[in-house]
């Protein structure tokens, strides 16, 4: 495959960025999108040019690091992570535009890499359960109804990639936040801090500059792990309860 790549280049957070055009050839349809970028970077290095900076880690669809807007879609044309997107999803001779996440709460570090530490601060504000540490309890020590356990497992698959924020016209992280609230809210261990958790995490979400949810649904459509939109309903329900309880 021969491709034309239009890629956002930006030297640093305060630098002015611009789209640069590159041509790559002999790209296998079995390559992942990141492997294709590796080929381009090898080409740039051989030409004594600076390689393109992009974020990645596991390359197995688990860590959520590979955050790219591809032809205007979060993670590209398939509902998956960028590292699991393969070049067979594109056509020979195609022009592909690659940009970083576009959200005020995700400032650009360099080129295609953004700072997603706002998610970390949201988790630190309340996305945990305070329990005594020590020996692991027996598996049956805290019974959890199967329906609750299944629900908790389903929403816990969120990998914090930020595709929901990038896809949302408002730059809202409500799907991410709702998945964390719902996950802990389904478990007995999460009940003691349920009100303070949602109040603290929503306050941190707003402080970080994420927008509000208007139920457009682009977040759920872009989510590579299939987190359902109804976690936002659960988030709003828990927040209303916390407000009634004075939080």
Oligomer: single chain
Class by helix and strand content?
Answer: alpha+beta
- H/I helix tally: 8
Sequence of secondary-structure elements: EEHEEEEEHHHHHHH
User: What is the arithmetic mean of pLDDT?
Assistant: 95
Q: What is Rg? A: 20 Å
Low-confidence stretches: none
Strand content: 5-15%
Instruction: Please describe the biggest sheet, giving its number of strands, its sense, and whether it closes into a barrel.
Output: 5 strands, mixed
Estimated helix fraction: 25-40%
Number of strands: 7
Strand order in space, largest sheet: 2-1-5-3-4
Polypeptide structure, described:
The chain has 247 residues and is an alpha+beta fold. 34% of the residues lie in helices and 11% in strands. It contains eight helices and seven strands, in the order ββαβββββααααααα. Strands 2-1-5-3-4 form a five-stranded mixed beta sheet. The protein has a two-stranded antiparallel ribbon with strand order 6-7. β1 and β2 form a beta hairpin. The model has no long low-confidence stretch (mean pLDDT 95).
List keywords for this structure.
247 residues; alpha+beta; 5-stranded mixed beta sheet; two-stranded antiparallel sheet; 8 helices; 7 strands; 11% strand
SSE blueprint and pairings:
Blueprint: E1 3-9, E2 18-24, H1 33-46, E3 69-70, E4 73-74, E5 95-99, E6 108-110, E7 113-114, H2 117-126, H3 146-155, H4 163-167, H5 174-185, H6 194-207, H7 218-222, H8 230-244
Parallel strand pairs: 1-5
Antiparallel strand pairs: 1-2, 3-4, 3-5, 6-7
Helix pairs in contact: 2-6, 3-5, 5-6, 5-8, 6-8
